[in-house]
Amino acid sequence: MPFTDITPQDRLALLNTARDSINYGLLHNTALPVELGDYSPLLQSKGASFVTLNIRQQLRGCIGTLESYQPLITDVSQHAFDAAFQDPRFAPVSKNEIEQLEIHISILTPAEPMEFSSEQDLLRQLEPGKDGLIIEDSSHRATFLPSVWEQLPEPVDFLNHLKAKAGLGKNDWHSEMRASRYRAISVE
Are 79 and 107 in contact (CB under 8 A)? Predict the structure, then answer.
């Protein structure tokens, strides 16, 4: 099912589930279990999501998956919990922070491999503000969601920061480098 057809009611259900999962996790140390029958067929279909948490526009957690393997509503519940309590970059969200959390959900389209002859060719193909990007080079792999373009609007900066996230230097480029792009439907 194409998530481009997501209704305002489904958007609200996703946001409420994410917030409820964080509150549930604070009390039970696990993600909110979801009853699939309570949700629309669209939210019951398999989907890949990332849940990003911010406090005063500062990143507080971000966890997700690049490939669909479970119902979208379950995926969001799990990733909201993980972003709040399992992101290794941050201490678990505290009770005092719960009300301050800004929740952003990205529903990802399937990633499509890109063909390019050089780093410059890859940069020319990128669509700032639209493309999420995955880069891979031997054991190095990282992704940036399309929303990262807001902080890094220049393709060369976007790619260099992504390489750093993958553990590569900004001058690292090998013929074995692979890249895939995807789009995201934003739910806020």
Answer: no
> Domains in the chain: how many in total?
2
Query: Same structural domain for residues 99 and 117?
Result: no
Question: Taking the complete model, does pTM exceed 0.85, yes or no?
Answer: yes
Decide which of 93, 108, 123 is a domain's last residue.
Answer: 108
Cα 73 to Cα 59: distance, rounded to the nearest angstrom: 23
Which amino acid does the sequence have at 96? N
Residue-wise over 163-177: b if at least 16 C-beta within 10 A, else e?
Answer: beebebeeeebeeeb
User: Do 37 and 98 have their domain in common?
Assistant: yes
Contact 140, 173 (CB under 8 A): no
Tokens of residue 72, six digits: 């979208």
What residue has token string 């700032």? 128
pLDDT at 2 over 70: no
Which residue segment(s) compose the domain that 167 sits in? Answer: 112-182
Q: Which amino acid is at 158?
A: F
pLDDT tens by residue, 109-124: 999 999 999 999 999 9
